[in-house]
Design a protein that fits this description.
Elements lengths: L5 H9 L3 H8 L15 H8 L1 H24 L4 H16 L12 H11 L1 H18 L2 H19 L3 H17 L1 H8 L4
Helix pairs in contact: 1-4, 1-5, 2-4, 3-4, 4-5, 4-6, 5-6, 5-9, 6-7, 6-9, 7-8, 8-9
């Protein structure tokens, strides 16, 4: 039962905003007050360039990956892994340290998927890269990869809890990107 303490810890780790911390350390404006107002790597790229965005992306990815990976190494059940992954992901979306106003969750979800299975995470990344190469629209790439992630989870991992966690993350990603979806449908993205 003590391993379940990792779930709230994963939420707290997810609540650490890489974008806000990196912007403060690099003397950049608060990403919640500049650009799109989203504390994520894409907005950090707008206001601070590739280096700041790359560090932010890595930080967001790692906070999804590390808790799941550690639980995986310790032999956690699929239910525990799914719970830990969702906790880290929800922490990113609704961080306790930042008034529950977080990012959209793409990088953290990739980290969670990589923690579940390297192949699952790589399938997401490959899909994102392929769609981006075709259309050059980051949000469309992320949304496409997100929609396919539960299918990838089913064929790669085949576990009900992992597929369920992938589905829940996909639904949150669609919700968090609703304005992007509206702009995509209107041809404005």
């Amino acid at each position: 039962m003590i391993e379940w303490l990792i779930v709230p810890t994963a939420y707290l780790i997810g609540s650490i905003s890489s974008a806000i911390i990196i912007c403060r350390l690099m003397g950049l404006p608060d990403p919640r007050e500049q650009g799109s107002g989203n504390p994520g790597a894409t907005n950090v790229m707008r206001i601070g360039g590739k280096k700041a965005a790359g560090i932010t992306l890595l930080g967001d990815l790692l906070k999804g990956f590390i808790p799941v990976y550690i639980a995986n190494l310790l032999g956690g059940s699929a239910l525990l892994l799914a719970s830990i992954g969702l906790a880290a992901f929800i922490g990113h979306l609704y961080p306790i340290f930042f008034k529950f106003k977080g990012g959209k969750g793409v990088a953290t979800s990739i980290g969670v998927l990589l923690g579940f299975s390297w192949l699952l995470g790589l399938a997401f990344i490959a899909t994102w890269l392929l769609i981006y190469k075709i259309g050059k629209i980051s949000s469309a790439s992320a949304l496409s990869a997100s929609v396919l992630s539960p299918i990838f989870a089913w064929f790669i991992v085949g576990d009900f809890f992992i597929v369920g966690a992938s589905t829940i993350m996909m639904l949150f990603l669609l919700w968090r990107h609703k304005s992007n979806i509206q702009r995509l449908l209107a041809g404005e993205e």
